[in-house]
Amino acid sequence: MLVIKDLAVKFPSRFGEFTAIEDVDMTIKPGEIHGLVGESGAGKSTVGAAVIGLLSAPGYIANGELSLGDTNLRNLTPDQAHEIRGDRISMIFQDPQTSLNPLMTIEDQLIETIQAHSNVSDSAARKRAVDLLEEIGIKNAAERIKAYPHQFSGGMRQRVVIALAICTDPELIIADEPTTALDVAVQSQVLDLIRRLARDRQIAFMLITHDIGVIAQIADRVTVMRKGKVMETGDTPQVLGAPTHPYTQALMDAVPPLDHRIARFRVPEEEGTAGVVTGNTAEKWLLEGQQYALTGLTLQDLCVRFAGPRTSLFRKPEPYVALRDVNLDVRPGSIMGLVGESGSGKSTLAKAITGLITPSSGVMRLGDEILPAGKARSRHHPSRQLVQMVFQDPYSSLNSRHRIGAILTEPLWFYGFVQDAKERERLAAAMLELVGMAPDAIDKYPHQFSGGQRQRIAVARALLARPRFLICDEPTSALDVSIQAEILNLLKDLQSMFGLTILFISHNLAVVRQMADDTAVLRNGVIEEMGATEDLFARPKADYTQTLLSLTPVMPREWQSAG
Amino acid sequence: MVYFILKRLVQSVFVMLAVAFLAFSLFRFVGDPITQMTGVETSVADQERLREELGLNDPFIFQFMRFTTDMLQGDFGFSYRTRQPVAEMITDRIPATLELGIVALLISLAVGIPAGVYTALRPKGFATQAILMTTLVGVSIPTFVIGIMLIFVFGVQLGWLPTFGRGGTVQIGGWESSLFTIEGWRALLLPAITLGVYQLTLTMRLVRAEMMEVMRSDYIRFAMARGVPMRKLHYRHALANTMVPVITIIGLQFGGVIAFSIVTESVFQWPGMGLLFLESIRFVDIPVMGVYLVVIAFFFVLVNLIVDLLYVAIDPRLRVKDV
Amino acid sequence: MVAFLKRYEGLWLFVHSPAAIIAAIVAVLIMIGAVFAPWIAQVNPYDLSSFSLFDGLLPPVWQEGANPQYLLGTDDQGRDMISSILYGARLSLIIGLAALTIAAVLGVGLGLAAGYYGGRFDAIVMRIADVQLALPAILTALLIDGIARGILPASMQQDLRVAVLTLAIALSLWVNFARTARASTFVQMNKEYVQAAIMMGQRPSRVMFVHILPNILGPLLVIMTVDLASAILLEATLSFLGIGLPADSPSLGTLIRIGMQFLLSGEWWILWIPTLFLVALVVSINILGDFLRDVFNPRLR
Amino acid sequence: MTHGNLRKSALLGSALAFCALGASAETLRWASTTDPQTMDPHAVNSAPVLSFLNNVYEGLVRRGQDMSIEPSLATSWEPLEGENGWRFNLREGVTFQDGAAFTAEDVMFSYQRASNEAADVRSWFAPVSEVRVVDDFTIDFVTTAPNPLFPDSIANFMILDKDWAESNDAALPARDAENFATMNVNGTGPFTVASRDPGVRTTLVPNEAWWDDAQHNVTEAVFTPIGNSATGLAALLSGEIDFIQPIPLQDVAQVEGRDGFKVLEGEETRVIMFGFGHEHDTLLYSTDVTDTNPFSDPRVRQAAGHAIDIDSIDRVLFRGKIEAANQLVPAGISGYSEANQNRPAYDPDRARALLAEAGYPDGFSFGLKCPNDRYINDEALCRAAASMFAAVGLDAELSTGPVRDYWPQLREDDFDMYLLGWSPGTFDMEHPIRFLLHSQDDEKKLGSWNFGNYSNARVDELLPQIQQEIDPAARQAMIDEVVGITQEEVAYIPLYTQPLIWAAKDNVDLTQRADNFFMLRWVTVN
To answer: If exposure means fewest CB atoms within 10 Å of the residue's CB, which of A38, A313, A472, D347 is most exposed?
Structure first.
């Protein structure tokens, strides 16, 4: 049984000591799945790292008790700590793509781990490894074990990671975002596996995640953290269903429900989280620019093929079909949601519309105009201005070497809207205000802002092009849930204010349900189903849509706050 | 795979042709071979006749075409200086340069990799700082100064090692090797160290940087979390993954080693291709210079190909198809 | 510009790195000496009438037979060592920096374009880079030297020796820049800010130089310091091989080449003082390069 | 390849060569800067080749330790009766190293081979109109004009065996491809080549059947070219070689200071001088005088002569090891003009006065061309000279380069002033007059190294007379006149005679000949 008391971890830095976590108490019983939930910067991973003794470089445990069973984890020498790792405590990392040594076979990695902790022969270790792989659901394990990590799919790989974590029968496994990098279907399988292991082997799990849906689905108990401190802890139904701490309450409010649509997320009013400020110059400027009518988008039989890797001199490489006969009609002034798992072709579709890639066939129409494809689209084509995009990663979508002012005024200058440099700056500052940021941000650099703030800046940049059609490619998937709520609110407000047409791309069904008027479901480059959002979610027709909906973790209705 | 190799080969031919062309355009400017070929008392008319006979008065493109077509037919021509067949002169010198280059490379790897691992694992240690500093000074001294210093310390003052040449060599199937006699090794040591110093530093720094990077990767942290023994962790996991980028750079550098052996060979009177090339420049021995360049380009291309194949050997991701 | 952005972090690291401070002091001192050589040096080694063979081979002041007028002695031409070194460092730095600039402009331009356009253009640039790599620096130097001699009137050749050498060194260095710029550009091409710029319909040159370039300056700056050191050493090596600068306008490398003749003759100062100076300069630049690498790659810190 | 066997047989010897003290006392290992390009004595007329092959091949005559001509394959020679030319009486009982007998046919064949267009040494035979075999051991060389110096001029004309050359397809010197004689030898000389690895190592062993009494005790001689002088010196000091030619001047003290080593110093016959672009209308490299050529005024040339402080050059650059020169050959060479022994004194004031007189009170700038890898300290000399010129207002724009492009520049008249070293191949004053002082005349092949085209009708007139004059006194008078004219007109500024500096282990006795040839037959290893 893991007992954590008053745990504090500090990171000395040149500006003094930074306290990562403080006063953390937690106990995890054998067989218990203990959810540790919080937004980025909450210190949840630090708790896990402290328990397993792998705090990154200057960090150290400043205070508190840490014990596993009879062992005081704080009194161990480095060698003893290394002995315990794997043997009694193990860990599962977020990304199965990167957590396996690419140069070693699964077999070697398993045998190596088993032999590190018990004195068994190679053949015994191999047998144990094969049995284990069978147990966690890898078929034909005796053969598959010889494979290298890259030969497994993402979900299988995460199973292998789990096998490696449990092959030494540890008492405690720290699972740090074990399903975040996985698609819904695979996520549900992995979660099932974790539940089974906890139940059958009585392994204690510390399940670190930002996804409250996951916690709701499998955690026995949950601890909510924020800024290095524990906000609330207790049994899952109690904490999530009847939160006592305002933070937990706010968190729950921000979670988009899957089974119904809410008009707006409830967000605590704090600085920098504000919604649209109305009536400023930027708003006026945008409204002035609406010389065009609402603009829709139609895609007809759009196909995108990529050249596959060439393997022979004599055979043409097999093309890889990213999109096949996609027909999509985004009504003017509406939000079209596009959902699909990774690799389904969502981003390819966005790139085809924006002209970054050239479709092999099909017609695209913006309003009534045919949108030239890819390279055929000149640099001065009006669609370059009318179609704007908000990207997924706010850390890479803003040029980190440019001032916010330079980033925001670029479209004004580039499209020739405003000739005077001072005027451009003023307008950019007003636009910042419009999206809920302080106008003085204009003199700062992107790295001085948080992810949510950057996404607001990205939205501001898109708006400064006076777009009629906005593509939002996973605009919130890199953000914490509370920030996501703010951005979604912002987008909704802007859309209704300026009559934008939006293509909203997301893997998150719940988010799409909150945002979209119509929804299309994309799978392997093919549209499986398309229709009005409420209709589609309430009565999914395609099998695939049904599966997706059923596998997405949901919170019991009674825990959800009224929307 | 086959396609990949073929593609590389085609590109290689392009590279070699371009080098040949560049090399050839260079010849016209290095100097006048005729004045180097003839004595003081040779008359101008005799010199002109020789120039005509050697085709040096022909248009440049014509000379280049002749050079390449002859070479493609395996005819590498004859040296202006010694009148020997160039092919033979170069192949006689290849073993010396290759052995020097390879031993220098091995020394740099044998010292550079452990030093890189050590300095990566103890980034703040005193020894690390000392090693980093020493090697930095090492690469900041011109190679020829290092060479001469080594000669005077170990050859003249201490008298431990020979000061020039290859020492005892043994003929093995047309390959004149100094690797099979003690004398040969003694003669090889100083030039190889001189040539290897730069590579050593480069290797060490590269291994260090890559190793530090790899040590932060998820799979190393995961291996840590599984309690994989430290030695295995450092060498089997971390170092092995470090090798992919290290091999690239080292492969690229090997071409440079061969080329830079010109300086080392000149200092140690090491009878390799580089020395031959320097002599050829002095005598404006056009055929030898041309073939030397093409051979160097060939080595470069060959090493690049080997590096690509080594990747495949090391990295299963390139070797095994998805199941 | 980049340094400015990093100033808080970089400055802090700098103040806490004694090696970097010492290196910077040494480098700055040498550079000041080089820049102000005409005012500091008591003798102008280019002005043949300002020194006399009569004063040749005088040892440094602490040795017997020295003339206190020449602190570090004189060489075989009677040139004051200090003056020669200052002027030599000046020339070496001019060559190094100029070569670096050419190499950087050429390499970064091609590398950026190769990374930006990819495909066939990239393949061609990289094959050209291969050709360049397959040609040892000494050959490049010979080639440039020869071509210059072939196309320039005789009276200009002597004046252009520095330019020729600079170009030769630049040509053997640009590949480094091209490869680094290309690799970094590939990374940046996947960044969404670049896609945003392309989507807007911005000119490729603007995307490359206004958007991508500032983001890849970090690694390029590291290469610059390392290559400045290489350029200075390469110049010395070419000089040793006899294709460097003439002895009457000596760079540090030429001074060392001349000094090599006195390795055993007892006039040690003619070789070792310029060598020490060169090593101090190159080590300093390398240390600063290391330091920059640490600043730009915080993960390795 | 034919020489593959030779090369392999060297391996045993080379393995021994590095056991410094254990080697046989009679093995001599020596080094020089340049490898002989070829083993063919007629293919290339260059000092490294001729020097090396003089150990293997022999001529009709040879030079003694004092450079005097002495009998070799010819036992005696006398002028022909009734026509111009010489009769050589050949030595009987001489065999080539492969055992074949030496006869007049071999001389005839060698003459034909060496005077063929493919041979680089054919200029030696320019005066020869006909060669006649009189009998097996008598041969006549007929010349177009009286030629008292002919026997001296063919000391390096080496004799090959006719049958050997013809049966090995080496009847002519290799021109653009190698032939058998490029790598193999068959001479009559004291040594023969046991193995050869070009550019790396050549091993010689004594010719047991040599006709002369061996004055050496060498049983094996290994030659290694070492291009880098510091490396060469290190090899000597570490005991890996026994002898090296040459060593840098500045290292003499170091070698002498060490136990067990000695330095051999002497004078080469090579005189170093500055030449002028006499014929140019304007200076090529001047920044201030562009309309005329000041060097066409003898006063300016005199001024340049007075600007040179040869004593300082000697003391600092050459460590007191050079002899100042006053004419184009050093004292001791036949024809040396005793009557004209004065060289211009170092006198900067006089130089300035002369310049002022010539109309250049502030001097002028000009281009000075120098090689940097041809003569000892050539580059340093030119830097020093430029500095001295500058002191009197002659602003020399110095340009140095390797000989490979230095000679072409001289040939193309691309200079205002240049540096040249000249060693009289015949060891007679006539040689520099023919090559350096006579006006350029391509047809007659005269003045071919007179790059500045110094031209004086009287000198041109005297040369053929000097060449043909049999009476020594009359001949000397004419030479004195030439030297007098050219000194007065400052055709060249002779600077000094180049020193010869060799170094060896104490236990090696050898002879340093003034032509810088190293003769194994005078070496004893103690």
So the answer is: A313
